[in-house]
Amino acid sequence: MDFLHPEYWLGLFGAFAAIGVLVIIFAETGLLFGCILPGDSLLFTAGILTSVNQIGDTEFEKISLPVLLIGGPIAAIAGAQLGHWIGAKYGRKLFDRPDSRIFKKEWVEKAEHYFNRFGPEKAVVIARFVPIVRTFLNPLAGMLGMDAKRFLIWNTIGGIIWTDSLFLLGHWLGNKVPNIDKYIIPGVVVILIISVVPIILEMRKGRKAVK
Q1: pLDDT score recorded for residue 102
Q2: How far is CA 36 from the centre of its chain?
Q3: Farthest CA pair distance, the chain
């Protein structure tokens, strides 16, 4: 399953790696099949390749950091807005399909849980850092009637924070840490843990409120 590894995509796109990264960001946030594409790991690795052009024994095309910092948020915001529009237009029937290899109803239920648990605004931002949820929450927000303009505001905030923070982290570590390729997977794990912390705190606060 090489397509789950960011190195596969970055090598596949070659000299057009920056464009490829933006396309995947758009697809992962705007199209339902995008849930199977790499997200955090791709952004982090792309950020590393703005500093170095080699990961392990493999050489890659160096990527422009300004292109990622500008294009990344635009792709993420545009993709999420498309997802919202799809959800608003097609509604619940969009999600009422049997499980398949690339679609699980539990993923939709998980996204709906975040939306209802944290409220629309927080959910749109938090979902950016949760794999799979960031794909399904956008059309779900449209389906549940979240206003497009209000969605755009929080979508913009979440899109900028998600993409640029991972690009900059990868860029900084690529400059500072020798043999950075050894730390790609641990780095992504740390990012995911940090992303989950505010969710756990919010859930604990909610339990206290119920008590």
Answers
A1: 47
A2: 11
A3: 56
Q: Find, among 202, 166, 152, 160, the residue nearest to 71 by Cα.
A: 160
| Phi, psi angles (nearest 5°) of residue 58 | -105, 130
From the list 179, 196, 202, 34, the residue with the least C-alpha distance to 117 is: 202
Structure tokens at 176: 């500072």
Mean pLDDT by 10 residues, the chain (211 residues): 71 87 91 78 88 77 93 96 90 65 62 76 86 84 88 95 92 78 66 62 55 51
List of residues 6+ apart from 55 with CB closer than 8 A: 7, 45, 48, 49, 180, 181, 184
b vs e for 151-176, b when ≥16 Cβ sit within 10 Å of the residue's Cβ? bbebbbbbbbebbbbbbebbbebbee
Give the residue from 55, 73, 38 showing the smallest Cα distance to 168: 73
- One DSSP character per residue, 144-209 reads TT--HHHHHHHHHHHHHHHHHHHHHHHHHHHHHSTTGGGGHHHHHHHHHHHHHHHHHHHHHHHHHH
Residues near 119 by beta carbon (within 8 Å), at least 6 away in sequence: none
Report pLDDT for 112: 75
- Is the pTM higher than 0.85? The answer reads no
- Separation between Cα atoms, residue 95 and residue 112, nearest integer Å: 11
Specify the pLDDT at position 65. Answer: 94
| Phi, psi of 107, deg, nearest 5 | -65, -40
